[in-house]
Amino acid sequence: MKPLGIKGNICESCGIPMHHLADFDTNEDGTVNTEFCHHCYQKGQFIDHGITLEQKIEKNVAIAEKMGMSWEEATLLAHSTLPKLKRWKALKPVE
Fold first, then answer.
1. pTM, two decimal places
2. 19-52 CB burial, b ≥16 within 10 A, e <16
3. Do residues 44 and 58 make contact, with C-beta atoms less than 8 angstroms apart?
4. Any residues with CB less than 8 A from the CB of 72 and at least 6 apart, and which?
5. Please, which residues bridge with residue 65 across strands?
6. Region at 50 (left for phi over 0; alpha for psi -120 to 50; beta for the rest)
7. Tens-digit pLDDT profile for the chain (95 aa)?
8. Which of 7, 16, 58, 60 shows a CA-CA span of 20 to 30 A to 47?
């Protein structure tokens, strides 16, 4: 898996770091999409199309907890990160 040479690239939907070609998927035309990870975006579409920001935050918190992060830390991170990402910026922040 080749590094893309993009430092600090994160998924603009879920916030995970993306450093290798395997972290990405493609647009509808087959070109590599570097804005969203393959967990969120495949073949030009969000795999969780229709999910709300609140639901995405809950999903991210659950994943972070499974990875060993405390609920409090995961919740704070998700609430402070996700609303600032491209996919969610236009939405009203979750309180």
1. 0.80
2. beeebbbeeeeeeebbbbbbbbbeeeeeeeeebe
3. no
4. none
5. none
6. left
7. 344 444 568 999 999 999 999 999 999 999 999 999 999 999 999 999 999 999 999 999 999 999 999 999 999 999 999 999 999 987 755 55
8. 7
